[in-house]
Amino acid sequence: TEIYTLSLHDALPISTSSSADTKALLAAQTAVTKSPKDAQAWVALATAWTNRANATASTNAKSAVASYQAAAKALESAAKLTPNDLTIQKALAAAYTSEASGYQAAYQQVAQQASDVQAASPDSSQFAPSAAASALDPFTQAQQSIVTKQASDLQNQALPLYTGASDASKKALDVYLKITKLTPNDAVNWF
């Protein structure tokens, strides 16, 4: 059975979280290190990562995603130790769902940045009396080139976020399918 090993450096720098948050992560990591076959220790570590993610989600979606990923990895380890534990399976599905939501929020932040860059694009009418003249204006061409490069860079950042959201959603679906197989008569799990 493969068990994931996580450290605080796997997700966020310690300086981005509160001291209580960091203490909880350190305590949970220590518990996992001491008892790597204890599923509940992994659940506690996942809870600490999730709390960190929730604390940073509104201000830094990309950092929150890293913490949600760490929470999911911890829950994957717990699930490997106790594969039929519904509570752990539900927590894992929720972690993947939170990860997907985090990716989506990060994607939206990058999309907003791209929109802001394009809105700040120089209006060629400010720099030349006609469109034909602006096409020849080196200053306007340089500004438009910069905006195009910035927009392209942001699009390159957005694609992996979109893919990450899709992948995390697929993982959540797979876990929810497993849960329904474990409890085929439970309507709540099917819902």
Report on the structure:
The structure is a single chain. By secondary structure, the chain is an all-alpha fold. The chain has helices at about 20-35, 40-55, 60-80, 85-120, 125, 130-135, 140-180, 185-190. The longest helix is centred in the C-terminal third of the chain and has 45 residues, at about 140-180. The chain is about 75% helix and about 0% strand. Helix 1 runs antiparallel to helix 2, helix 2 packs antiparallel against helix 3 and helix 4 packs antiparallel against helix 7.
Give a quick precis of the structure.
The protein is an all-alpha fold. It contains eight helices and no strands. The two termini are 31 Å apart.
Shape: elongated
Taken as a percent bin, the fraction of beta residues is under 5%
Total beta-strand segments? 0
- Unreliable residue runs: 1-16, 124-129
The radius of gyration computed from the alpha-carbon positions, rounded to a whole number of angstroms, is 22 Å
Helices and strands: which structural class?
A: mainly alpha
Reading the helices and strands in chain order gives HHHHHHHH
Major beta sheet summary: none
C-alpha end-to-end distance: 31 Å
Residues in helices, as a percent range: over 70%
DSSP helical segment count = 8
Mean pLDDT: 83
Fold topology:
Layout lengths: L18 H16 L4 H18 L4 H21 L4 H34 L4 H4 L3 H6 L1 H45 L4 H4 L1
Question: Main traits of this protein?
Answer:
191 residues; mainly alpha; 8 helices
